[in-house]
UniProtKB/TrEMBL annotation:
Gene3D superfamilies: Glutaredoxin
Taxonomic superkingdom: Bacteria
Annotated signal peptide: 1-21
The name this protein goes by in its record: Electron transporter SenC
PANTHER family for this protein: ELECTRON TRANSPORT PROTIN SCO1/SENC FAMILY MEMBER, THIOREDOXIN DOMAIN-CONTAINING PROTEIN
The family this protein is said to belong to: Belongs to the SCO1/2 family.
Transmembrane intervals: 240-260
Matching Pfam families: SCO1-SenC
Keywords of the record: Membrane, Signal, Transmembrane, Transmembrane helix
Length: 281
């Protein structure tokens, strides 16, 4: 009898393992392909049409002025968790920058759910602008919705791969910020719910090709390159050494110039004293 019980337990255990493996395999199949295909250098189509928060039809090209970089985040407003966290992260990151959307850069928040309405986007826009607390940012942070054809064209252009999970009635999608140049060219990707302020600043400087930011920002971008594995900007040893060499030359050159000026002034004083006419008595 004991032998029969052991056989039964082994049978049940095997059945449970098989069921778990099937569920795990099914789970993996559902999420297969979700993620980012990096498409640096590709340009998003400017003629794609969307609807803004007022219900007006707009083209994507309207948001590319050739100068200001664009921070693109793809979300859907019925998302149970991740998209809300990502938008909170966007808001916090924007708030940490001294730059303002609409001035130095543009923010595009576009829903990838074709069933969502512009009214939903308008409500989300109002919510996050209130949370940001910068009234002058309203002209630079745009919330758009669109149909499946235009959404698919945009997500394909930036390599944003998502899937509808029927069993959960929700989208599986990456949480990634996409940085575009002022012409709509893909410049950089940063993954996560929230970006460090320093990474965001450098990514915007990089996307603007130096049109945004100070000379210090350009030096920092030269010395720090984005590492996709680390998902952050890290020091480029070779460029750091070159920058340090240039700085050393400039410092030494400046010191030599100062010494040269002082020596010349000293010589001039001596000559002036030697050849000056004696005063009459």
């Amino acid at each position: 009898m004991l032998f029969g019980v052991l056989v039964a337990l082994l049978f049940v255990s095997g059945a449970l393992d098989t069921a778990h493996a099937q569920r795990t395999g099914q789970h993996r199949d559902e999420y297969e392909g979700v993620g980012i295909d990096r498409k640096h250098g590709d340009t998003v189509p400017h003629d794609l049409t969307f609807t803004d928060h007022t219900g007006q039809e707009v083209t994507l090209g309207q948001y590319f002025d050739g100068e200001r970089p664009v921070l693109l985040n793809l979300v859907y407003h019925d998302c149970p968790m991740l998209c809300g966290l990502l938008l909170n992260g966007v808001t916090k990151t924007i708030g940490s920058l001294e730059w303002t959307p609409g001035d130095e850069y543009t923010v595009l928040t576009i829903s990838f759910n074709p069933r969502e309405s512009f009214e939903q986007a308008a409500a989300q826009r109002e919510r996050y602008l209130d949370q940001l607390g910068r009234p002058n940012a309203a002209d630079g942070w745009h919330f758009l919705t669109g149909d499946a054809e235009n959404i698919d064209a945009l997500t394909d252009a930036v390599g944003f791969n998502l899937r509808w999970i029927e069993s959960k009635q929700e989208f599986a999608h990456p949480t990634t910020y996409v940085f575009l140049s002022g012409d709509g060219m893909v410049s950089q990707y940063i993954h996560g719910m929230q970006m460090p302020q320093s990474d965001t600043r450098q990514a915007l400087v990089e996307a603007s090709d130096g049109q945004v930011g100070s000379p210090v920002d350009l030096v920092m971008l030269y010395c720090f390159q984005f590492d996709p594995d680390a998902n952050t900007y890290t020091a480029d040893a070779f460029n750091l050494m070159k920058a340090a060499s240039v700085l050393t030359v400039l410092v030494l050159g400046g010191m030599l110039y100062v010494f040269w000026r002082r020596e010349n002034e000293h010589v001039d004083d001596q000559l002036e004293g030697r050849f000056s006419m004696p005063s009459e008595t």
